[in-house]
Amino acid sequence: MRSTWQPSSLLFLLLLLLELSCGSLQESSKPNFVLMMVDDLGIGDLGCYGNKTLRTPNIDQLAQEGMKLTHHIAAAPLCTPSRAAFLTGRYPIRSGMAGSSGHDVFIFNAVSGGLPSQEVTFAKIAKQQGYKTALIGKWHLGLNCETSHDHCHHPKVHGFDYFFGIPLTNLRDCQPGHGTVFQIHKYLPYGSIAIVLVTAAILHYIGIITIRRRLVLGLLTLLVIVTGLIVGFIMVVPYFNCVLMRDSRVVEQPFTSENLTQRMTQEAVDFIERNSGRPFLLFFSFIQVHTAMFASAAFRGKSRHGIYGDAVQEVDWSVGQIVQTVDRLRLTENTLFYLTSDQGAHLEEISVRGEVHSGWNGIYKAGKATNWEGGIRVPGILRWLGKIPSGGQVDEPTSNMDLFPTVIRLSGASVPEDREIDGHDLMDLLQRRAERSNHEFLFHYCNTYLNAVRWHPQNSSSVWKAFYFTPNFYPETSTACFHTHLCFCTSSYVTYHDPPLLFDLSRDPSETTPLTPDTEPAFHSILAAIKEATERHQATVRPVESQLTPGSVMWKPWLQPCCSTFGQFCQCQQDQ
Asked: Does 22 participate in catalysis according to the annotation?
């Protein structure tokens, strides 16, 4: 039989093999990403940032084998806006993830607000580049829009192939015996009610007025009904808010937190093992060390700082397990690790038993919910053996928004040009090809209000920070803040400064002494430069629909995720 094989066929086969080989080589050259964010971790809680009493050997080793950022800034001092900025590389005001009327974060699962689907996350672009993507842990960026199953704000809409975690956050209500964040009784006018009742009783007794028995019974009935509704609401909150999901399915309601970090860690290990043969992106979003505090039995009582310290040390163990998995699978030289916190530690959190559940922000002033350095200066550790020098540190201003362009470019994609991106690629700084940060200015918002501006001038070691207003914050009375010590940003709760308060963080990182024209000769020219930059920045902020309006954050029963009927109080344990 005569062969029908033609030279053109051989050429086609060779070209096909070459294309497949190049495609395979290109895919294998793409780095994996393991991005870890701890909730409310203080920069001073880690040994590599100066802590001498908490044991964090795994995180410290990560810093020793990689690069430590000492001037790393969260884009917001609260969870929801900070996480939106991290995922999108954009100030949260650009995506509508910043409130204007005292609504800072989502406190219910059944709300209609959330990260808009038109926003682009690094997970969405990595997925388009052939990555397998996963979010394990806390989301806190919304869930549903119109029904309890539309999942319009679900992590899958934003590029995550796999999700195992909680759509909201860890609340006091999720821990038996830790009280509730909905301390409605603090807002009821008990004192006024008591005065009115006593006065009415006295006037009735001396005959000035006559109070009918029917009116008394009606008022007492109303009081009982209101009290019952409040107690009932607080009792059902754990069933509505403390939800654990696997992909789109509720698997535990309310969730049991005690061993949740260990379960999440195993999920992360499994995901890495399943996808070790292809590029992957893992976002491990810790539920610890946000209140209410918890730690697994193996870690309880092991630290010198109570349950908070126990939780930090469990986080460190988890980091070690994930790093060891990557190393065991021989993916070390092709995996970029990143560890940070979503904002500074919460300093004023007190348990129902009077225990102080706070972290340490080192030398930095204040903490979570403020734009003082303690609220936004966070750990930043990156390790990529063979690509990032070991044992170094970057003292230039950087932002958690910088991970967006860094991940995008390393994945082989281009940074979107159809929107403002506020982050900058970190690789030149990390690989010492650049000495200066591209962040000449950083803008710090309190909700939608511009609170402060940071300026690192070219050819200068100074980092100026100007405050337009500061919160009236008195922890001993809590007169200007929520009962949870989260401050409002509106005029009744802040002090405005004209001229702005000015600090040089290179000389005064603790923000102890505001500068004046007498102590800083360039005072007026510095503020003029900051004002000009602020005007340029604000011209780029386009109006968008807010996701944190009163209507968007209000509980809506038809949006409530529930693994059973309401008659069964939305409870299940399907994932044990």
From this structure: no
